[in-house]
Amino acid sequence: MDTITATVTGARHLRVARNGQDAAAAASGPGWAAAAVCDGCSAGAYSEIGARLGAALVVAALARRLAAAETVEWSEVRAEVVRALAELVDRMGGDRVQAVVEQFLFTIVAVAAARDGASVCAIGDGAYAFDGATRVLGPFADNQPPYLG
Predict the structure, then answer these.
(1) pLDDT at 22
(2) What is the pLDDT of residues 4-40, one digit of tens each?
(3) Please, which contacts does 141-145 make with residues 24 or more away whose CB atoms are closer than 8 Å?
């Protein structure tokens, strides 16, 4: 299985010496591919942590299912990622709500593709193109899209 990860720090973040909050991950194998892009909430002090972990966890969950030729049920992928992040937050100790707000608010746009088709799942804002049609997600009131956390 090949994997790729990437992040991009925007100009505004560079000017104020703040980490970028976007992350991407991808994996592929014989006859399948998976990718996820996550965008951390700019109000979170360290939301790049959640975005990076989220992208990696989503792609790992998709890769396991696709490599086993299983049907991807997005609700199961979401539940698996939430469980992994909840366990991490529990292990961190301290104020759970503060940990989520500071580090684990991020949006997700992900794709799972196999020889017989592809599907996209999104939580929050963003955009994607599928079969030549572009879909823009949002904007949301007060620039507050739904987050996985």
Answers:
(1) 86
(2) 555 555 666 566 655 667 899 999 999 999 999 999 9
(3) 145/107
Residue where the block lists tokens 């572009």: 134
Distance separating alpha carbons of residues 145 and 105, to the nearest angstrom: 10
**CA-based nearest residue to 51, from 80, 4, 85, 97:** 85
**Buried-state track 4-22, b at ≥16 Cβ within 10 A, e below 16:** eeebeeeeebeeeeebbbb
**Cβ–Cβ under 8 Å, residues 97 and 138:** no
Q: Does 113 score more than 80 pLDDT? A: yes
Place of tokens 């100009």: 11
